[in-house]
């Protein structure tokens, strides 16, 4: 009788999964389809998002070439509309959010001392949904026309039926359904992160000892959970108006297009905080490390993040100042918008306080983080200008707004993300990115970005409207537009340098140590790249910046004194005794193919919706149902083949 | 601390000291298994399930709640038929109060918010209040008179 | 630690299967996730309910009005049935928490049957309204009413499939007392759907125009 007889008697047998055998390999190409390892999933999100960043960038360059001269002839109006719609949609939903999720997925379990997220298979499902959602949206180019109603899709332009003739083709349908899918992916990821952070922290890791990035990921996830359903509702209404002749936004039957704007921006404003808070978290991690000082006012930074999360719900109608809401509404929202500048400003001062007086090392990651502070502050200032309602009435729908949000999203989020790449690359891949190429990367992006977007403030105030495919000469805009286009190509060059950096270093051996930057948080206490199970022994956390305190203490003068043992397990020890299952017995959740299968059913259902075709709906639905059943019936972790349990430490 | 938020109650006892520490004695498979069950799984008092801070209601209470729900529904319908004889504002107020009470009863008793960890209550309440507040503002802005 | 203690996903342990035994909220991951999802769904339904409130009384609409169509006694009966399904659901949960699988099967199939009856009532009501001239494209009232109640019905249907699956698993002896949490999570979803109907019934049907 095996040692497991009694064990099995205490549980009932797990039902065998239907038809498909459970994959088991955790290495090799096929494992990237079946993995449920949060680290691999983070890499997948990151790679996919980077790809879409390039695609969105190319779309932007086409726009910039069109606008470089008056009466440009590169693009027709219709093509222009498609390109600016897809540029915005791609950058927000296929680049910004997935990159934030990439970092959160990879880092949050490591930073809180956990071995994986709460729901590894749902994590993988979220990724497939994003990938398939992106493919679905882009397939529209060859399936009757890509989305062309703007990334915000205002009604009634997008909601009048095909027969109404406003936006011919299925573009708006692809857009609405595509975003609903991406929303499903985002929401599942967000729920995963919240449960992971609340339930799976290592012993001693209280909420106020968590690294700032994890805090921001948590707040972002709450925002996502509450914001995505609102846009889902709005898009369902748009889809129904367009395809089933409902009257939600049909003015002739009394419908109110402004309802859409409310619903959209109820989602849309929290969305921009969903985009920027992870960036703020990244910067809050990098600045202390390269200043060799703790984050200045950690509690305040955390509470400001939470405050932004709350206040962000109360400002949405500032996107609607020019729609005739009435003086009471616009005054209230103008005020709330000004208010939200306060916690944001507080954070900026805390970051400055972190750097001030520190032993600053200007690595590429640090340069990007400092660049973030500067660029995001500029973006915030133009934002505050928008909060003054009479000013905004002039600025609305001009390039002034375009300047503002690119400063906060590109100068803010994207800079932070690049910083995050340079900072965490050694941890993820075991190799450092090249610092010299990194400096070129940074300066090209900084110069190019400012050349592209700063003139937009001016040209916007001179009256150049947004979303218009060409302008007449004699407006006084041409020179500035040309400068902007040149800037755009410099940005492209900077991005190219980054890609070169990746390939250039990819061939090098994996020599990065566990802690190349002498950093502060737990992810730096394990090898680079981390083993599948992350931590050989779950750490017992005793302080904020726990890893730092295991390395250093302060003497009587307040100077740092290195402690003899790092506190982490010696790397040599790790590779010899704590490999996957040998001798240590850590059993990670098993790979699964069902997240992929369920996710595959969704685009089928999406095409069924766009083309109103029941023969696509049924297989899609069946695939989803089959996948869900099989998923529900397979245990998270497959039992090991019979082995005698070893006593740890036994001879 | 790692124990924050866990249930009160006595810790269930294990079978004395670890058997493997008694030299010469062979453990039975069952004893070996019991040793391996994490402490935390035995942390709750008997009768409390994971996630509970008090014992969940018993079936009789559920039935009583059901009866109350039916009675309130009956009252609601009655009130709705009073349209015309009492002001609409009053009818709406009464109906909203009764709907809220039913909502509260189902959430507290059937969904166990009364007896579970407070974290669930907080999430649900925040979601509900957020929904009500946000949409109320939207409706006000679009000039709906309540 | 060995592999044994980590592979018991079906015992009611609060530790997840990954070796980290401190679940800081003292609750299971799945239950927390379901509550988060339900909070999210609040905002989803809130959008449609407020759209209905916005549009119901707008003047100048064609087609029948709520007063013309609503059959309060009929809808009261279907509402009552859905309320009772919540009772049977929680009794099913209580049964499986005690390990009484027979009672569990009885109560869960009762819940399914009540749910199916409710949906049947909805379908009947919708076809009646359609016959009397209210369709999804007739007016603001028609659009917002049918989409709101239709989405609610879709939620109920998904719940029915879920509960039916649990019943099926139980009939095949694949479920035991250790699965009480799975049932609880399904129950939370079901009660939520009932609670949304409580709001819809009051706000859509009963509130005077």
Note down, in words, how this protein is organized:
With 651 residues, chain A is mostly helical. Chain A has helices at residues 5-10, 31-34, 38-67, 77-112, 120-139, 171-199, 212-244, 257-289, 298-311, 327-355, 364-387, 389-395, 399-429, 435-461, 478-506, 546-551, 571-577, 594-611, 614-633; strands spanning 552-554, 560-562. Chain A has 19 helices and 2 strands. Chain B has 146 residues and is mostly helical. Chain B has a domain at 57-111. The two termini of chain B are 48 Å apart. Residues 1-24 of chain B have low confidence and may be disordered. Chain C has one domain (28-206): Cytochrome c oxidase, subunit III, four-helix bundle (Four Helix Bundle (Hemerythrin (Met), subunit A), Up-down Bundle), CATH 1.20.120.80. Chain C has 7 helices and no strands. The longest helix of chain C is centred in the last third of the chain and has 32 residues, at 140-171. The chains are: A mainly alpha (651), B mainly alpha (146), C mainly alpha (209). Chains in contact: A-B, A-C, B-C. At the A-B interface, helix 1 and helix 8 of A face helix 1 and helix 4 of B.
Keywords, please?
heterotrimer, A: 651 residues, mainly alpha, Cytochrome C Oxidase, Chain A, two-stranded antiparallel sheet, 19 helices, disordered N terminus, disordered C terminus, C: 209 residues, Four Helix Bundle (Hemerythrin (Met), subunit A), 7 helices, 73% helix
């Amino acid at each position: 009788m095996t040692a497991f007889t009694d064990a099995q008697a205490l549980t009932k047998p797990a039902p065998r999964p239907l038809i498909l055998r459970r994959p088991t390999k955790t290495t090799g190409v096929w494992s990237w389809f079946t993995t449920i390892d949060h680290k691999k999933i983070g890499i997948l999100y990151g790679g996919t998002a980077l790809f879409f960043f390039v695609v969105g960038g190319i779309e932007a360059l086409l726009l910039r070439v069109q606008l470089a001269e008056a009466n440009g002839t590169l693009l027709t109006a219709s093509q222009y509309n498609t390109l600016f719609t897809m540029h915005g949609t791609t950058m927000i939903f296929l680049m910004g959010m997935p990159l934030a999720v990439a970092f959160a997925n990879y880092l949050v379990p490591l930073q809180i001392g956990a071995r994986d997220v709460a729901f590894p298979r749902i994590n993988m499902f979220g990724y497939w949904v994003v990938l398939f959602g992106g493919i679905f949206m882009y397939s529209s180019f060859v399936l009757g026309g890509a989305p062309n109603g703007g990334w915000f899709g205002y009604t009634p332009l997008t909601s009048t039926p095909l027969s109404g003739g406003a936006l011919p083709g299925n573009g708006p349908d692809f857009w609405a359904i595509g975003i609903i899918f991406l929303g499903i992916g985002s929401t599942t990821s967000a729920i995963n992160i919240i449960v992971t952070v609340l339930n799976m922290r290592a012993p001693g890791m209280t909420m106020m000892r968590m690294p700032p990035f994890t805090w921001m990921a948590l707040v972002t996830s709450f925002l996502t959970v509450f914001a995505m359903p609102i846009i889902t509702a709005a898009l369902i209404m748009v889809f129904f108006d367009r395809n089933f002749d409902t009257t939600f936004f049909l003015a002739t039957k009394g419908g109110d297009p402004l309802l859409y704007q409310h619903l959209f921006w109820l989602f849309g404003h929290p969305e921009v905080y969903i985009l920027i808070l992870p960036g703020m978290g990244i910067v809050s991690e990098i600045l202390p490390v390269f200043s060799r000082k703790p984050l200045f006012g950690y509690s305040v930074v955390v509470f400001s993040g939470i405050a932004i999360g709350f206040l962000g719900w109360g400002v949405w109608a500032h996107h609607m100042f020019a729609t005739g809401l009435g003086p009471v509404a616009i005054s209230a929202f103008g005020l709330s918008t000004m208010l939200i500048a306060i916690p944001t400003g507080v954070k900026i001062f805390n970051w400055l306080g972190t750097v001030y007086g520190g032993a600053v090392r200007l690595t590429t990651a640090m340069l990007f983080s400092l660049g973030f502070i500067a660029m995001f502050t500029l973006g915030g200032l133009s934002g505050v200008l928008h909060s003054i309602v009479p000013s905004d009435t002039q600025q609305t729908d001009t390039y002034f707004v375009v300047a503002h949000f690119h400063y906060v999203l590109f100068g803010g989020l994207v800079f932070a993300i690049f910083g995050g790449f340079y900072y965490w690359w050694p941890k993820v891949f075991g190799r450092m990115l090249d610092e010299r190429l990194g400096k070129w990367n940074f300066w090209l992006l900084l110069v190019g970005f400012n050349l592209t977007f700063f003139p937009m403030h001016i040209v916007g105030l001179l009256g150049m409207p947004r979303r218009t495919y060409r302008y007449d000469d004699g407006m006084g805009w041409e020179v500035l537009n040309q400068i902007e286009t040149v800037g755009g190509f410099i940005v492209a060059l900077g991005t190219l340098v980054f890609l070169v950096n990746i390939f250039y270093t990819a061939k090098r051996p994996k020599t990065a140590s566990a802690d190349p930057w002498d950093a502060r948080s737990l992810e730096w206490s394990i090898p680079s790249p981390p083993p599948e199970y992350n931590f050989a022994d779950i750490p017992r956390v005793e302080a904020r910046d726990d890893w730092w305190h295991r390395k250093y203490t302060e003497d009587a003068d307040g100077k740092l004194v290195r402690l003899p043992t790092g506190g982490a397990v010696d790397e040599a020890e790790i590779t010899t005794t704590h490999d996957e299952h040998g001798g240590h017995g850590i059993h990670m959740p098993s790979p699964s193919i069902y997240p992929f299968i369920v996710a595959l059913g969704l685009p089928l259902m999406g095409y069924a919706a766009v083309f109103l075709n029941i023969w696509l709906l049924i297989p899609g639905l069946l695939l989803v149902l089959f996948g869900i059943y099989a998923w529900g019936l397979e245990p998270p972790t497959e039992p090991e083949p019979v082995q005698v349990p070893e006593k740890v430490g036994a001879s | 601390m790692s124990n924050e938020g866990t249930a009160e109650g006595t810790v269930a006892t294990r079978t004395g000291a670890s058997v493997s520490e008694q030299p010469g004695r062979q453990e039975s498979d069952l004893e070996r298994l019991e040793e391996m069950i994490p402490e935390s799984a035995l942390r709750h008092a008997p009768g409390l399930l994971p996630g509970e801070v008090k014992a969940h209601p018993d079936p009789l209470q559920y039935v009583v709640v059901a009866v109350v729900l039916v009675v309130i529904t009956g009252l609601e319908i009655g009130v709705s038929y009073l349209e015309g004889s009492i002001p609409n504002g009053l009818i709406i107020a009464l109906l909203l109060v009764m709907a809220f009470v039913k909502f509260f009863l189902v959430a507290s008793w059937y969904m166990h918010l009364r007896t579970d960890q407070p974290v669930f209550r907080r999430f649900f309440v925040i979601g509900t209040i957020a929904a009500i507040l946000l949409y109320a503002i939207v409706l006000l802005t679009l000039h709906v008179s309540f | 630690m060995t592999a044994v203690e980590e592979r018991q996903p079906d015992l009611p342990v609060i530790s997840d299967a990954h070796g980290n035994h401190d679940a800081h909220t003292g609750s299971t991951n799945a239950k927390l996730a379901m509550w988060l999802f339900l909070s999210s769904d609040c905002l989803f339904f809130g959008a449609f309910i407020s759209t209905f409130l916005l549009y119901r009384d707008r003047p100048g609409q064609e087609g029948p009005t709520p007063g013309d169509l609503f059959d309060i006694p009929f809808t009261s009966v279907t509402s009552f049935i859905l309320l009772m399904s919540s009772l049977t659901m929680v009794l099913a949960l209580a049964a499986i928490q005690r390990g009484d699988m027979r009672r569990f099967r009885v109560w869960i199939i009762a819940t399914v049957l009540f749910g199916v009856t409710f949906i049947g009532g909805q379908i009947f009501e919708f076809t009646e309204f359609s016959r009397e001239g209210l369709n999804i494209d007739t007016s603001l009232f028609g659009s917002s009413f049918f989409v709101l109640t239709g989405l609610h019905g879709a939620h109920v249907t998904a719940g029915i499939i879920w509960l039916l699956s649990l019943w099926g698993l139980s009939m095949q002896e694949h479920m035991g007392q250790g699965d009480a949490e799975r049932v609880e999570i399904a129950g939370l979803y079901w009660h939520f759907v009932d609670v949304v109907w409580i709001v819809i019934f009051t706000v859509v049907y009963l509130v005077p125009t």
